[in-house]
Amino acid sequence: MDLNVVSRIRQEAFYNSQVMQTFTHLTEEIGPRLTNSPNMQKANDYAKSKFNEWGLSNVKDVPFEDFGRGWDFRSAHVEMIAPRAFPLHALPKAWTPGTNGPIEGEAMAVTLKSAEDFKKYQGKLKGKILFLSELRAYKPGTEPDQRRYDDAGLAALQSFAVPKTMTSDRAKRIKDFRDREKFTRELNKFLVDEGVLATVSISGWDNGIIRVGGAGSRRAGESVGVPDLAMIAEHYNQVMRMLDHKDVVRIRADIEARFTSDSNDPGYNTLAELPGTSKADEIVMLGAHMDSWHTGTGANDNAAGTAVMMEAMRILKSIGVKPKRTIRVALWGGEEQGLIGSADYVSKTFASYPLSTKPEDADLPKSLRPRTGAMQRKPAYDKFSVYFNMDNGSGKFRGIYAQENLAAMPIFQEWLKPFNDLGATTVVSRNTGSTDHISFDRVGLPGFQFVQDGLDYFTNVHHSHLDTVDHASEEDLKHNAAMVAAFVYAAAMRDERMPRKAVIEE
Amino acid sequence: MDLNVVSRIRQEAFYNSQVMQTFTHLTEEIGPRLTNSPNMQKANDYAKSKFNEWGLSNVKDVPFEDFGRGWDFRSAHVEMIAPRAFPLHALPKAWTPGTNGPIEGEAMAVTLKSAEDFKKYQGKLKGKILFLSELRAYKPGTEPDQRRYDDAGLAALQSFAVPKTMTSDRAKRIKDFRDREKFTRELNKFLVDEGVLATVSISGWDNGIIRVGGAGSRRAGESVGVPDLAMIAEHYNQVMRMLDHKDVVRIRADIEARFTSDSNDPGYNTLAELPGTSKADEIVMLGAHMDSWHTGTGANDNAAGTAVMMEAMRILKSIGVKPKRTIRVALWGGEEQGLIGSADYVSKTFASYPLSTKPEDADLPKSLRPRTGAMQRKPAYDKFSVYFNMDNGSGKFRGIYAQENLAAMPIFQEWLKPFNDLGATTVVSRNTGSTDHISFDRVGLPGFQFVQDGLDYFTNVHHSHLDTVDHASEEDLKHNAAMVAAFVYAAAMRDERMPRKAVIEE
C-alpha cells in the first residue's frame, strides 16, 4: 500500500470533491433512471461526457440483451370523490399503462390470486377500481430509522454460520417462473377483458411511504394490463374499512405514464478505463448500477454508488497515478430487474455456461435456462483480478465483506489501515448478495461489496418515493469515493491478482 | 371507590365496547373536522344523535364566540412540469383559497419576512409560485417512532422543577400579536396585488410527512391571500436545489378548496349529561376537543379523545349507575385555534375576567384583551368539582398529571388502584398544558389530563396527513374509556368535591 498515493487520494476526495455535483446531476437534473427510460439514456450520456471530460479511455456504452421497452411517468393524481372527497397518495408501478385522461369508478375490494378467482368475478368488474391487497395493520416503529454501526455491531458481523444445505431444484424454479408468468399474462388479459379501470395495492411500508416497483410488462407484444397503483397504507386501509362498512367509495385517477418504445430494445452499461502500464491486459474493475426505480430520484439506490465509482475514477485520473493493471469502471443497467446488465457483461466478457437453445426454453430468462455444459472461460477470465461494487444505500464504508474468500482477508485488512482513522476497520468473511458483484462471484471471479452504515435505507428509502438526495450524506460519499479509489489502485498495483475461491457449480 | 362498579365499567368497556365504531365514524365516515367546516357540523350532529340514542340528558350544541368562516378542501394536485415532470406531494393550509382550476407558473425562492422585503420584490412576482421557506437539511431519526413508558420513564415524571420566574408582559404580547396580524394582512395584500399564483412552504417534518395547520384568514372581510401549500421536505428541498442550480422550474397546481360561509359564525361545543341524584346541582365534567386539522382524519388529534369520552358516558349510562353529582360531557370546538370553545364555555358558565370594551381593544382575542377587574365567579363555580380531558394522542393512560394540586394526588392514587393491573400506576405532581383542561385550570377549577403512552404521536401523526385510524390502538382506547368512566364516577360519588389549588391571577 503506497501511503503517498493514499494521502493524495484522500486529499483529492476530501478537499476537491465533485461527488455531490455528480450525485445531484444524476438525481435532480436527470431524475430517476428506470432501465431503458429516456432518463437512463441521459444518464449514460452524462456519464460518458464526464468520463471523457476527465480524460478516461475507452469510454463507451455496451449493450446488453434485449431488455424490453422504455417507460416513464409524469404525474399521478388520485383522489376519493365520494362519499367524501380527499386526496389519495398513490403512484403507478413501472411498465403499467397510464389512464389516458381522468377516470372515475367505484372502488371494490377483490382477491385475484389464481385463475379460479377469475370465475368468481367474471362480469362484475366493469368500470371498477380494484383494491387487490388485504388491509394491513400498522406496524409501530420500535427501532430508530437511522442506523450506524457501533463497535458491537461491527463485531457481530465477524461470526459466520455454516450454510444450510440448499437443494437447488431448477425444475421447480422453472415451473414456478412459468406459473407466475402465465398467471400474470392471464390476469392482465382478464383485467382488460373485464373492463377494469385500474388496480391498486398497498405500499409495502407504513407512514405514508410509497414503496413500489414494476408490474404490467416491459416486453413488447405482451399485455400491460390496466393502470396499476401503489397507495400509502394510511389511505389504502381507509378505503378498505369504508368498503367493509358498505360505503360506496368513488375514486378519480389521472395517471400520465407512457411506454417510450414499442420494441425489445437492448439496455446499456456505460464503461470507461484508466489504462494500465506494465500489466495493461489485466483488469481491476469497479462499478455500481446506474438504473433505478421511478418514484424517487434513485438517489441512494443507486446514484450514490454510481457517483462514488465515477468520483473514484476522477480522483485516480486527477492525481495522475499510472496503475500497472487497467482500471475499468462499469455503470450497470437492468440491476433492479435481476442484475441483467452486469450478468450479460460478465457472460460475454469473462465466463458463461452454454444454455439450452431449444425453442421450448426460449421463454426462460438466462438465469433459469437449462445449462448444457460446464462453465466456459474466455481469455479475459484469467486476466481478471477483482471487482468492487457499491449498492447498499449511501452510508459510509466501515469495512468489507470478503465473500468467503479467506485469502483476500489479510489483503483487505492491510488496505483498510489508512482508513481506520475514518472508522473503516472491519473485514468480515461473510457474504453479501443481491447486487452486481454476484454476477462476478457466481462464475468464480472475485467480486466484493463494502460493509456500509445502513442510515435509513431499509426504513424509509429503498425503492420508495423518498429515495432522494436529502437522505444521503455528503461526508459518507466522499469517504466512500476515497476508499474505493485506494482499493482499486492497490489492486491494480499489487504483484499478484486477487486470490480466487472455488467456483461452486450448480 | 366502589369496586363492584369498576368491575362493571371494565367489563362493559372491554367486552361490549363501541369505542372503535365511534372513533371510525368520526374519522372515516365524517372525515377531518376543522372548526366550522361542514364536517364539524356533521360531528356535532352525530355526537348528539349518539348521546340521545344512549339515553343521556340535556343533549345540545352550545355556541361559542364568533369564530369565523368555515372552510374545507377536496383535492390537491401539484406537480413539476419542467425541467422534468414528477408529482409533488403538497396540501393546502386551512383557510387559504383554492386555485379555481389548474394554475401554472415558475417557482421562485424568496424571503418575505418583513414589510421591507416587499420592496425588493415589487413588480417581480407576477405569475410566480413562491417558495417561502429555506431548504432544511434532513434530520436523521435516531429514536424509535413509537414510544411507550417503561418503569424508568414513569419514574422520571415524578420529579418536579421549581418553575422559573415568568414575567408576563401583557403589553409586549399585545404588541407582538398586533405586529404579526398587521404583517399577515400586508403580506396577503402584497401577494394578491403582485399577482402571485401561490406560495409554498416546507412541511415541518421529514420523511414525506405533510404537517400543516392554517394560514390565510378565517375572519370574514379579511384578505385570505393566495393559495398556500405545505410540501414534503423531500420535494421542497429538491425544488430549492434546482432553483439554486439556475434551473427554470415550472409547477402546475390544482387545489379545490372553498370557504363554506361568508360570515363570522359561532362555533359549537356539544354537551350532554348523566343527571345526578342527591347532589344533582354539582358538576363533574369530562371532555375532549372534537375539532381537528384538515389533512388526515383528525384521528389521534382528537377523535380518539372524543370517542373515549363518548364511550365513557355510554358505559356509565349502560351499566345503570346513579351518580350523586351530575356528569357532563363536553366535546369542544376551536381547540386548534387556541382552546376557543372550552375557554368561552368556562367563562360563560363558571368564571371570567371583565375585559376592556374600548374600541381600540376590539381587535384583540379575549385571551389578550386587557382585564379591567378581578375574576368574577358565577354561581356554578362553587358547584363544580372536576374536569378530565384527553388530548395527547390515542396512547394508553398510564397515570395522571395532578397539575400541582397536591391534595388531589392521594385521591387519584386510590382511584388508579383498580387499573394498576393494566399498567396505569402513576400520579405525578407536574403540569401538562396546551389543551382544554387549561381553560378550567386558569380560573382555579380542577382540570386534569392523564399520562399517556406517546406512541408515534409526535413523530408521525400530530397535525399531519398521517393522523389516521391506523396509528391508534383499539386496546388503548378501550382502556382509556374504562379509566375515565371510573374516574368521573368516583368523582361524582365522593363526599367532597375535588380539592382546589389557589387561582394564580396575572
UniProtKB/TrEMBL annotation, chains A, B:
| Subcellular localization(s) per the UniProt record | Endoplasmic reticulum; Golgi apparatus; Lysosome; Secreted
Keyword set includes NADP: no
**What InterPro entries would the database entry show?**
CPQ (IPR039866), Peptidase_M28 (IPR007484)
Can you give the residue ranges of the Peptidase M28 domain?
A: 269-488
Superkingdom to which the source organism belongs: Bacteria
Give a yes or no for keyword Ligase in this entry: no
Give the matching Pfam families.
Peptidase_M28
UniProt keywords (A-Z) are:
Carboxypeptidase, Endoplasmic reticulum, Glycoprotein, Golgi apparatus, Hydrolase, Lysosome, Metal-binding, Metalloprotease, Protease, Secreted, Signal, Zinc, Zymogen
- Subunit composition and interactions: Homodimer. The monomeric form is inactive while the homodimer is active.
* Name listed for the protein in its UniProt record: Carboxypeptidase Q
